[in-house]
Q: What sequence folds into this?
């Protein structure tokens, strides 16, 4: 199952709106087939593994990181494929929360005489597909907030200089994060200040750049920006309010930018919680929020941060520097969002800290 989980991780950021699943087929103590969900969500992991196994699948055990699907979509159910292949036993890590499946796949296997074991490394499997599970159960994606700061939590000098606070190794790790997420999210202020590309620029992973999403209620993103200039090649979405300038909206669309309307909150700004719901409706399951401080504050205020990835450089800036998050309405310690640290590791001269919300 650990091998199957490793295969599943290969699909992160590349299979949405589907879950990332891995499958290993074993017969007589030997691996005869391996597979994982392919780009775009099809073919499924079980189909890939069974194709490799061929006739060796008959009488074998299939280890699957998520309950095999039981519904007809663009392809027949994976539970049916496992039965047709003659698999004798299926070990599943966790049940699929999708109501079209949710126990039905395992029941179909049992009804066909296939031995079924479930719950093996369920926590690890749930973590891999936490975004998919959130989208099914709560109609929102998993949101990871990434910071690159000094030791005292500053993201730029008072003049706005921020390149580069962290080192090359930390930046490479951040690009790997991009490859593992469906969408990368920034605010309009960051887009204006940095004019970023928001692509994955690791060797061999150039095709794994996520959808680029800009929260821009007033449509301030410059038409000459890199994001707009490359929107025809790399999917780029602008989250904005519906009452914006029609001519500017048309100019964005002509350049290839997709305009996504989001309802305003009480302050007539984009309701960030509603924005996450809108992204989930479009199939996004994993969002990497990269900046800036206003966007971070909005996500924290709306209780929409599930993971923190904090790159901390061994330098200090003091109160003159810009904070990682702007004020978001904390008066008492009891109001602060609490996280649990799940990992801590050096990346070059910097430290990478990973936190999770309960």
A:
């Amino acid at each position: 199952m650990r091998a199957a989980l490793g295969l599943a991780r290969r699909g992160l950021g590349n299979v949405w709106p589907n879950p990332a699943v891995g499958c290993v087929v074993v017969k007589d103590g030997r691996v005869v087939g391996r597979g994982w969900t392919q780009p775009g969500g099809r073919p499924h992991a079980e189909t890939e593994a069974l194709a490799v196994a061929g006739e060796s699948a008959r009488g074998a055990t299939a280890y699957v990181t998520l309950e095999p699907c039981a519904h007809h979509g663009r392809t027949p159910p994976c539970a049916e494929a496992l039965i047709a292949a003659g698999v004798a036993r299926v070990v599943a890590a966790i049940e699929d929360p999708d109501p079209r499946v949710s126990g039905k796949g395992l029941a179909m296997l049992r009804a066909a005489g296939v031995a079924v074991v479930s719950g093996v490394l369920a926590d690890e499997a749930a973590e891999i597909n936490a975004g998919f599970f959130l989208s099914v159960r709560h109609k929102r994606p998993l949101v990871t907030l990434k910071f690159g700061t000094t030791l005292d939590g500053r993201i730029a000098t008072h003049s706005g200089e921020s390149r580069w606070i962290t080192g090359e190794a930390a930046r490479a790790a951040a690009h790997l994060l991009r490859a593992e997420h469906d969408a990368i999210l920034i605010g309009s202020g960051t887009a204006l200040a940095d004019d970023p590309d928001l692509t994955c620029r690791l060797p061999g992973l150039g095709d794994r750049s996520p959808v680029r999403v800009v929260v821009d209620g007033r449509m301030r993103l410059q038409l000459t920006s890199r994001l707009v200039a490359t929107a025809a090649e790399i999917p780029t979405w602008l989250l904005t309010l519906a009452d914006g300038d029609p001519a500017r909206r048309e100019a964005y669309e002509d350049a290839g930018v997709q305009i996504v309307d989001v309802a305003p909150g009480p302050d007539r700004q984009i309701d960030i919680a509603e924005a996450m719901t809108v992204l989930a409706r479009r199939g996004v399951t994993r969002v990497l929020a990269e900046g800036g401080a206003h966007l971070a504050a909005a996500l924290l205020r709306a209780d929409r941060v599930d993971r923190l990835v904090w790159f901390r450089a061994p330098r200090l800036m003091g109160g003159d520097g810009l904070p990682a998050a702007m004020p978001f309405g904390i008066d008492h310690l009891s109001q602060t969002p609490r996280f649990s640290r799940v990992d801590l590791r050096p990346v070059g001269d910097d430290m990478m800290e990973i936190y999770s919300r309960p």
